[in-house]
Amino acid sequence: MTDLGKRLLGLLTVVYFGSACASAQPRFRDAPPVWRVDDDQSIAEPEVREFDAKEYSANVFALQRIDRLLQLRDEELAGNLNSLEEVPDSTWFQNRIGVRAVKPREAARGVDWGGPPRRPFSIIGGKLGIGRPSFLLQDGTGRRFRVQFDTERNPELRTAAGVIVNRIFWTAGYNVASDHVFELRKDELAIAPNATYINAQKNERRMSREAIDAILFTAHRREDGVYRALASQLVPGIPKGGFKTKGQRRDDANDRVNHEHRRELRGLRVLAAWVAHTDIREESTLDVYVERNGRRFLRHYLVDFGEALSGHASTSGRAEDGWEHYLDWEMQTKATFAFGLWKRPWEDVHATPWPAVGSFAARPFDPTAWREVYPYWPFAEMDASDAYWAAKLVMRFDRPLLDAIVGEASLSEQAAATYLVDTLLARRDAIGKAYVEAVTSLDDFQLSSTQLCMTDLSVRYGFAKTGSVEWLSGSTLRYSLPLRADGRLCVRVPRGDAYTVFRMRVRRSDNDVRPAMELHFKAGERPRILGIVRVAR
Length: 537
Hints:
By secondary structure, the protein is α+β, with helices and mostly antiparallel strands. It contains 14 helices and 19 strands. The strands form 4 sheets. The protein has a 7-stranded mixed sheet with strand order 4-7-3-2-1-5-6, with helices on both faces. Helix 4 packs across helix 12.
């Protein structure tokens, strides 16, 4: 039989199989997918959630881990998805690059509430002690900012990371503050009446010139006396503390999905691994009570990215950053019983030639083995579908987009900026290969009254050279069709308006097959896709 004959037979077989599937029990209602949830209804003003570092550490390193070990847990699909397994817009997430083309200039601007601080500068507060000394600053327009500085060891790293990761997360869809790099001199800093600061003992004291000197003591200053700083504008509204990593907020009636089952938080693990945002915890999130169009509700933010892009590893001297939790029972026990014979992956991590980049690198990097400093509960719940969703977002960041974003960091060496973009692209591809290719990556479905077209994203992005799509009835193979060289495939669909289910999987070779997925649709005069199950159970 000729190749044409085989293809025609394949189309007829798919049509026959599709007709056989038409009587399947409907799983999705016949309605457009939900792209916006109404979680912005008015609520009473919530209490402030205080962050207790000791209690948080005890929970994430011991209590929650023991609790998890004692439970017989099954994988639970994320609870805030629409019928296409996408995340609708909400007070947590706004679809941007996942649903439309974002221009480089737009990505570089990000969220902008008026640009960097404008002179004159007035200090209204500050923080000293271990960690990241900072100011609270009010500028000449009355806006307020949290201001942080680079360290002497890594000038430009913290400020660059803060801006770059802020723009990347905004472009992906997360709520972030308005962050900018700017410059100042110490003699430009006035002290506002009644300004105070928190000292290393967490006591409040009146702000003074001596306190300013202490805050700036560890900051990098150029030879001309100028400090480069990262200004993060305080988010409009009333701050209510970070959001919980598990469960729901009791004083927020709009909070109806357990946080560990929100896809944008579970999938955040993939984006955090991409940009080495290891220092993520409850303290780096923020709930803000806002008023919009007469409604008062909470909006949920990710904040404080200054220790991403290896910033935490470089400033704290943790070579194992990104490979092990701060207290990592598994890895540290393994190392103990290996008696020094096991070479840990992070032993191949070395600093780059640029202090502004630190040790951020494309190799060694394993997205599936990446670990944050403090175990973040939603990350432990991430499944293959969550990872696929997030990896698709990451893969949409191309060089022009990243060039524009990295350009916002105003690095003094172009070679460092070029290296950063090259590294982000290489880590992007590692993420795509790990998570896009892990599932049946058929996507970009286009349905008409006569045919269904689809694209294998793994082939499109070059993670796989070829493959075939298999149609299944349960686990029984019914038919297989080869993909085109560009990963595209079109098949005929059953006539009429019957509820139809295509259960499909991708095969790369005889012994290399992906998990099955399902596409639910109706053709007929008004063709519409009703739902997608990325990993069919």
